[in-house]
Amino acid sequence: MMDDRLFRSTMGKFATGVTVITTEVDGKAHGMTANAFMSVSLNPKLVLISIGEKARMLDRIHQSGTFAVNILSAEQKEVSMLFAGQIKEEKKVEFEYIQGVPTVKGALANVVCKVHSSQVAGDHTLFIGEVQDIVLQDGTPLTFFEGKYGRLAEEQLI
Ligand code: FAD
User: Fold this and answer.
1) Where is the Flavin reductase like domain (predicted)?
2) For the chain, which residues make up each domain, given as ranges?
3) Rounded distance from Cα 70 to ligand 1 centre (Å)
4) Which of 8, 21, 111, 158 measures 20 to 30 Å from 35, CA to CA?
5) Which residues does 132 contact at the CB level (< 8 Å), separation at least 6?
6) Which residue from 20, 25, 33 has its CB within 8 A of the most atoms of ligand 1, so it is best to mutate?
7) Which CATH number is 4-151 given?
């Protein structure tokens, strides 16, 4: 059997941005950091996220049927750490509501989705979201590579 560490470090070679997935159930907003995000289709406009079976977010998206993908800026490392449970103290976070869905303020993009379909895949569930609304802002992205946060060095853009 293949070693878990080999698989994890191999997947960590794929440099990504960082998002926070947000949703609301019974008037309570919930956020979770995720980098398993991709664009799927232009017509209709679909995106995909992957949520672990142990994440509280899983049931919440099943219940609400909606979620937002908030693409974080380089200034939002702490936001990512907060919603990944890497900062322990409780923090009050203010969300901005778009079409009734909580979104993260100051993100490069808020992509508001309605669940189109879901598919269990091993220990994760893939949610395909149909995009309902988008809010965009200028800025540079927070990045994630080999398990570490980073930012783009502008002069190294090729
Ligand atoms: P919880 O553990 O309940 O919440 C996560 C944290 O967010 C907690 O500390 C909580 O206090 C805080 N929080 C939530 N809502 C609020 C609120 N309204 N106000 C204030 N604080 C709040 N996991 C995946 O399943 N898929 C991925 O693609 C993925 N990618 C990741 C990428 C990165 C870079 C990192 C660091 C982690 C990633 N994870 C991913 C792991 C995931 O973020 C954590 O396992 C997370 O803790 C699971 O969230 P949960 O839904 O169980 O929520």
Assistant:
1) 11-151
2) 4-151
3) 13
4) 158
5) 66, 99, 112, 113, 114
6) 33
7) 2.30.110.10
